[in-house]
Write a structure and sequence with these properties.
It contains 14 helices and 18 strands. The strands form 5 sheets. It has a 6-stranded mixed β-sheet with strand order 1-2-6-3-7-17. The chain has a 4-stranded antiparallel β-sheet with strand order 11-13-9-14, with helices on one face. It is α+β, with helices and mostly antiparallel strands. Strand 4 and strand 5 form a beta hairpin. The chain starts with a helix and ends with a helix. Helix 1 packs antiparallel against helix 3, helix 1 packs across helix 13 and helix 11 crosses helix 13. It folds into 2 domains: 294 residues, 3-Layer(aba) Sandwich (Aminopeptidase), CATH 3.40.630.10; 128 residues, Alpha-Beta Plaits (2-Layer Sandwich), CATH 3.30.70. Helices cover 35% and strands 23% of the residues.
């Protein structure tokens, strides 16, 4: 099938693709304890299984995993000697927050011009639909073996899928290339392949300074305040430039050749617009923006357990808690970063308060070479689909699957690309995806599968002779 034939075929398939995306977006598939949302996760998995069955996968199934989530797994054999390509995305989503803050209903796919709004439209139900539509476009002409993986708890750390893969390595050992459709592009219509990801550590910090609530007039000034102790601990994790500072944290240098450096530049004006920063607001950090986002640690306070304004009373609280998210730079193991974060918090504990640090999530950073044959094939397909060359960039996010796949399939090329861009507002209100970028991703993936499968260098029997 030629490039033009693929484009025309996919153009005719896009209305059905959007119908399928609307069905998935309608389901509030946030993985967690809420029974209704757990049912929505199961329903989303069932929709994907049905779609794979329609694509002639012989035994698609929703597999229960150790964290209680369902991972959709399916394999369809290609011609003899064909390479095996893993297609990954996830169908679980972040909570929507306050629905009234959305311009469009969070769980109703709404088109406004070229944008499709709805929770999961970009992250990452749109990715699921892109995979399914690319496979449908190729039909019986798909020249590779496909291993489809649809995760159900990625937004909560992906421990279920991680455990499943490590417990069933033989199911993944033959993967030659993995298309991870859960990354971001630097802008609308600007395709990118992501070759580095920061890792992540999420920890819960608990502070205790006493045994009971005290009157702030009677005891204030001598009795320590747990809230203030927590604030001082958290403040010690950023310096005056805004850099995250953790005692003894390594600062690895990520090498960039001239071409990569040009790709990675992130102009301040573009960053300000994308981040919605006020004119007087400072851009944080002592390095350039791309390095700050992709190659340096970044600590964020996700939540605090302190009295709300409506509960304010003149009292000294004996306990305070926070959840912190540390993005770990490439080159630093998450285990080391977590240990250093804990040690820093304990070392910067004021007033000898009781401090407990509990790790909730940990995932290593990831880097991938940009010179493999599958990488070159994807770069060519993305360039052809978007009408401009694909760039190679880093990403500040984390995808636990990447490190797990490397452990069980060390020869596989792991390729990250995506359909979102800064205007997609993933993890925030008014999440959206550009229809043009979604369709271009489908075209690029179909071209990639076609070209990889017809490349004589990828045929497995040649390795065995």
């Amino acid at each position: 099938m030629t490039d033009d034939e693929l484009r025309r075929t996919i153009g005719t398939l896009m209305p059905d693709a959007l119908t399928r995306l609307a069905e998935l977006v309608r389901l509030p598939s946030e993985f967690g304890a809420d029974p209704e949302r757990r049912r929505a996760c199961a329903d989303a998995a069932a929709l994907i299984v049905d779609a794979l069955r329609d694509l002639d996968f012989p035994d698609p199934r929703a597999v229960p995993t150790s964290d209680g989530s369902l991972t959709v797994l399916a394999r369809r054999q290609g011609p003899p000697g064909a390479p095996t390509v893993l297609l990954y995305s996830h169908y679980d989503v972040q909570p929507e927050g306050t629905a009234a803050d959305w311009t469009h209903p969070p769980f109703e796919l709404t088109r406004d011009g070229d944008r499709l709004y709805g929770r999961g439209a970009a992250d990452c139900k749109g990715g699921v639909v892109a995979h399914l539509t690319a496979l449908r476009a190729l039909g019986d002409a798909c020249p590779v073996t496909i291993l489809f993986v649809g995760e159900g708890s990625e937004e909560q750390g992906g421990r279920g899928l991680d455990h499943y893969i490590r417990s069933h390595p033989a199911e993944f050992a033959d993967v030659d290339a993995a298309l991870i459709l859960d990354a971001a592009n630097p802008g609308p219509g600007r395709p990118a392949i992501v070759t580095s990801l920061r890792g992540v550590v999420v920890s819960r910090v608990s502070v205790r300074t006493g045994t009971r609530i005290l009157h702030s007039g009677t005891f204030g000034g001598a009795a320590p305040d747990a809230a203030m102790a927590l604030i001082r601990i958290l403040a010690s994790l950023r310096d005056d430039t805004g850099d995250t500072v953790i005692d003894d944290m390594p600062t690895p240098q990520i090498p960039h050749d001239a071409d990569h450096r040009a790709d990675a530049d992130y102009p301040e004006a573009a960053f300000r617009e994308n981040a919605g920063l006020p004119a007087a607001g400072r851009v944080l950090g002592s390095d350039d923006i791309a390095t700050q986002l992709w190659a340096r640690p970044a600590l964020t306070v996700l939540a605090t357990d302190l009295p709300a304004l409506g509960e304010a009373v003149p009292a000294i609280r004996p306990t305070a808690r926070a959840v912190v998210n540390l993005r770990v730079p490439p080159g630093v193991p998450a285990r080391l970063a977590s240990d250093l974060l804990t040690a820093h918090i304990r070392r910067h504990n004021p007033w000898n308060a009781e401090v407990d640090v509990e790790e909730v999530i940990s995932s290593d950073p990831f880097t991938a070479p940009a010179d493999g044959p599958a990488h070159r094939t994807l770069a060519g397909a993305l360039g052809a689909a978007h009408g401009r060359p694909a760039v190679t960039v880093g990403d500040g996010g984390s995808i636990p699957l990447c490190g797990t796949l490397r452990a069980v399939a060390p020869r596989a090329e792991i390729l990250l690309f995506g359909i979102s861009e800064p205007g997609s507002n993933i993890h925030a209100i008014d999440e959206s995806v550009l229809l043009s970028d979604l369709e271009a991703a489908v075209v690029a993936e179909a071209m990639f599968l076609r070209d990889l499968g017809t490349d004589p260098r990828q045929r497995k029997e040649e390795e065995q002779t």
